[in-house]
Amino acid sequence: MSAKRELVERLISAWKSGDVDGVLNCVCDDVEYHFLVGERPLKGKDWVRRFLEKFGSGMSDIRWRLNNVAENESQLMVEGVDDYVNAKGIRVRTPYMGIFEFRDGKIHRWRDYADHALIQRSEAGEPVPQWLEALVG
Fold first, then answer.
1. DSSP state of 39
2. CATH no. of 3-124
């Protein structure tokens, strides 16, 4: 496993255990994080911390996973599933793609691509559409 993949796996492990500091240890001080591409990016560890603490509040049974990974010299692209129980007790499963760019052994830029409307419907308790079951199951 490459050093880039190991770092992303360490970030995922920290997130699954609710360790925001562990997530932030994987990123540069001036990280730029697009939680949803199209939304304004979060810049810097302080902004990312505030977002993660709010986003993760009440989240449990986190099963974030990677299904496919591709990489080059400076980037790692992933396809996976965000899978967790939200504060209302609803299981949310959403397919996504993300790309991580690295600098000095840490994540410098991080972009996630997902269907925001699907996330909202899932968080409201709607079941995952049948045609997406193969991606999130």
1. B
2. 3.10.450.50
